[in-house]
Amino acid sequence: MRRGGPSTAPRSGTFTSLQVRNYRIYASGALLSNVGTWLQSTAQAWLVLQLTGSGAALGLTVALQLVPSLLLSPFAGVLADRVPKRTLLRWLQLGMAVPSALLGVLAITGVVQVWQVFVLTLLFGAARALEAPARQSFVAEMVGQEHLSNAVSLNSASFNSGRLVGPALAGVLIAAFGSGVEATGWVILANAISYGFVILALQLMDPTLLHPAPLTGDRRGAVRAGVRYVRSRPDLVLLFSVVFFLGSFGMNFAVTSALMATEEFGKGAGEFGLLGSIMAIGSLAGALLAARRPSPRLRFIVGAALVFAAVQLLSAVMPTYVTYAAVLPLVGLSVLTAVTTANALIQMSTDPAMRGRVASLYLMVFLGSVPLGAPVIGWLAEAFGARWALATSGIVVGLGVIASALYFLQHDAALRDALAQRRTRRRSRPASAPTEDALDLV
Prior knowledge:
This protein is mainly alpha-helical. It contains 15 helices and no strands.
């Protein structure tokens, strides 16, 4: 498994992409917004538990937020390849802010019901599904190919810096406002305000310093073309398979950590929020580790995913809150190393004209797979306990990653043999023989 990025070696260093003015401005606004995202994620989980006390309802909430990624991501990728991404991103920040603001107001006034949480979560997820491919592929337009791997990793570091601060801050704020339904509303409302910082950052950019990819125009079959492109690349199929298992059965921390904190260890909102921040220590370290690797490798991604599966199993048997919390940085380190490096490798090795569609398919597999796994993990936790849910998560991820790696080795070897045979036939063909069309195999 040696495939990596392009032959031109990018610069190494943890923060090299911050030398680019537009990216530096964008990263500042995104960091504040990421803190808001984790404020809402923690507060919304606590809100659902306050309203229902059900692990299955919590899993359903996570699923509803992410199911639009499963349905809309392919079309969102086409949109990102057709419309200037900076303009698209400004409008979609508003699309996420409005449902957050409505949910916050409903909770503050004390009239919120669980069906309203479900509806607004679905609307928020739809805007997020449309925004994510544009955001992912816009990174290349800000920094160019030279800094792309580093910028993708720093985006993950920013996201997990927000995760480091957001859950603990949310827990403190919820406790300070009384730990009830109304308390969660103020925290959710803060997230709605945070999207304004991204809009401001996009407005302050210098458009002449961007590297826009060519727009595809209104072409039929654009989604199918993206799918064919991915299917023709065994390395992309492996990456998509790995992130599918990590997303669907591995990254259900909003469900598992909430239930471990409340049911297994009898803790409250503050301790639950602290678990998210403790995990973020490892997640941030994983993102920064990926930022230092200028040439991502498939074997590194597969290895990190297998380490995550093992550590997830270990966390399931931790006897106390303190020992469980001590393992979480390793969980965050391994999973974010795998996911961030996979994202960077996908962006670096993809044709610029296809980048929006490939990014959307990646997000569809990664985020859209969570609705498949979150209700299952929530049901397992409710029926058999949070520990069984964590153990099942680790086992399924480990077996899935191993199967994906074996599939890649088999099909990559067959692809290399086909290319070698074709080169042999070309060398043995007389010069006067007609030339066949090139096979688009990679």
